[in-house]
Fold this protein.
Amino acid sequence: MSALEVVPSAAPRSRRRGIPRVSLGYVGIAVILIITVVAIFAPLISPQDPNAINLLAAKQGPSSAHLLGTDASGRDLLSRLIWGARTSLLGPLLVVVGGTLLGVTVALVAAWRGGIVDAILGRCIDIGFAFPGLLLAIIASAFFGAGLVAPTIGLAIAYTPYIARLTRSVAIRERRLPYISALVTQGMSSFAICIKHLLPNLAPFILMQATLTFGFSMIDLASVSFLGLGVQPPTSDWGLMVSTGEQSLLQGSAWESLFAGLMLVITVGAFSTVGHWLEGISERRLSR
Amino acid sequence: MSDELLRIEDLSIDLPIGGEPRTVVSELSLAIGAGEAVGMVGESGSGKSMTAKAIIGLLPRGARTSGKILFDGTDVLGLRGAELRRYRAQSVAMVFQDPRAAINPVRTIDDFMTEALRDVRGMAAPAARAKAVELLTEVSIGDPERVLTNYPHELSGGMLQRVMIAAMVAQEPRLLLADEPTTALDVTTQAEVITILARLREQHGMALLFITHDLDLAGAICDRTAVMYAGGIVEEQGSAEINEHPRHPYSAALLRCRPSLSQQGGRLAAIEGQPVAAFEAPAGCRFAPRCEYAQDACRVAVPALRPVGGAMVACIRAEELGPLTLLDDTPVAINHATPRQPAEETTPESAATQALVTVTDLRKEFALRGGGRFAAVEGLSFTVKAGGSLAIVGESGAGKSTVARMLMGLERPTNGTIMAMGEDRSGPAHGRATRLRRASQIQMVFQDPYLSLDPRQRVGEVLDESLRLHKRMTRDERRTRVAELLEVIGMSARPAASVPAQLSGGQRQRVAIARALAAEPRLIILDEAVSALDVSMQAQILNLLTDIRERTGVAYILISHDLGVVNYLTEAIIVMRRGEVVEAGDTGTIVTAPTEPYTQRLLACVPRPGWTPPARQPLALSPTAPSA
């Protein structure tokens, strides 16, 4: 009760370091939005058929006919990148949705029940850490066949322990706040408190985690595609394009791998920038 | 005042709040003589802490200052780098409100105390250690060698604050800044810390700037008191004089609105409205909107601080009003002579028909981390009648809050029974109907108004949610009822769409009370419900609680360490110490004629006009129990 809380706004603080930190987050969001819009409207935007083979125009550099050049089969790279955005974004999205649903559920149950339930779930989480994500994705592909679905499920399960453990610790902290006790004394059910009060207050944190996980799983899925266990040709996918471009690369035409790799770097970079930006926001909120 | 040590001239501080510079201290001038103790008294937002931070050069980043702070003739605001460090190391030291937050938790007390001596003074480790032992002895720590090997979490708050004071005195500062050093402590510990501060100041010839919200506390330790409101000093006078003859309406109002040991029931002379920061204040006298003496002329210009009858007063009507009396003592005496019906003296049959809650031989054990068990509550029995009121008082670790949590079903008792409205509540609530019935019978208001509301929920939603749980009402009926509840808590002017962040502490606590009322309970448990509030807000909330009781006949169980509040609001008291009942009975009797030494000591430690902290007795020496 002594003094009024002073929360210096982020802007003047970061101005000292030269670059305002806030705007980087907005740049990230803008990049993500642009790529998402491109992916959604791929059929309208893409200048050519991504799968139209023209062996006469193979391995060309950027030109007026093919803005970003062509691949080994003479397919238009720009069109393939645009269509590739769809699978490249869809995979991580499914991983994040699956992993977050599972992880947050486990976390809330553990945090709310505490005691033995928490201990058991905690052990399960620890066991989950033993499996590297990429390995799980590859095993899933080996069992259920290559494609988008199998590695996505594998990765979603692999990311669950990470999401669960962090969310659990934040949820435990939030659960100890008196407003939760106040709701209990109101006679509200545990489920209602978790869904209506706990979850919305954890939302900034969960969103931050989801954003970071999106970036990580995009790299993982690209790796799976690179190994040929993910999305199958002729469907375009950035990870796959890095892989197929490899042969052209050895023959002196780097365009396919370069552009696909660049798209991965930009997208993953955008997601981790936004993720860290959200991290700052949720930390400030949690340290009330 | 002989030698002037510190002179603040026209100090203004702007802080970036919400991205814009906002004035929190406005043209403040104050002088402190060498060895003099000055009290700075004010509510939230008055700028008292910021003034102290400006003196020691700890203003938050982005703060802008104007004016001068002359320490021994040097302008402190201009100091940078090595000069600033030398000034901090040699001239000033600061004791903070929460010692637990101000002492590094992973270092031992030894590290904390000797670090500055070794690094800044270049003392050898054994010499620094010897000095630390000497200082800890000075702050009345009986076993300094052992305390030095402890970590902060192993010590109680009172012990830590003493360590903090010892470490600050080690620097041999010429001015010690104490920012609400006892606010987080029990009354008994507070009295000890005050005694220690007063003694150290004398022994070391330090000047002291003592920041507090309690005029009586300032009166006990300071030579002069400056009362601050909305970023400026409104009155400056000798500490003893200001408590008897305040000249500024705000000082007088602050003194009047405190619930005292001599007032039971009735209404407190609350100050209307709420405290504001300098940038929120209107033009003219900043206190005018809340002042009962305000005239049109008051709203023209900020009144200057000027000498009036031996005091410095910033009020244009100071001469005309003269020294203000604290007349409100008179109705108090009447109230006290005719207390509401005593609670405990009920005949068995009427108790059986009227008892709302009967607690019998309640016991709660917690497992200790290192094995073994610890009884937080032991052998507690009491009865609360319909419409009655009971206070549970005691120091921290007494088990008061554990009792409240057990009554609410947040903890299960280890032994004993809780009968409430004909139902045994000792066991868990199975099923939705039981849960809701129990919740609708007993409600609770928590201590911290900043944490007891869902930060994302709007005021209307908070109340609506409670109504949906407990009442079969249509949407329109609920909307009407929400408006009624807002009316009851005096917030009908506030849109129901406000979120907690937009409300002051007092307003949030009002919302929490309205939420408790929504279920129309027969008993409300108030767990330190007014202790975190500003003095003027506290008086308003206490009046509100009194009104609600008159209107609805609800019973209260008040958990508190503030005997003034207890005396004002309740008819019966249970005094607890380390889980056990020390004394129980009628409030008037216990407050005026306590029989147990522990109760007597608690009462002696409550600050009041003309109060000095009582001499320390071995009773309070024992280490506090681990808090639950």
Remarks:
- The CA atoms of residues 391 and 558 of chain B lie 5 Å apart.
- The first strand of chain B starts at residue 4 and ends at 17.
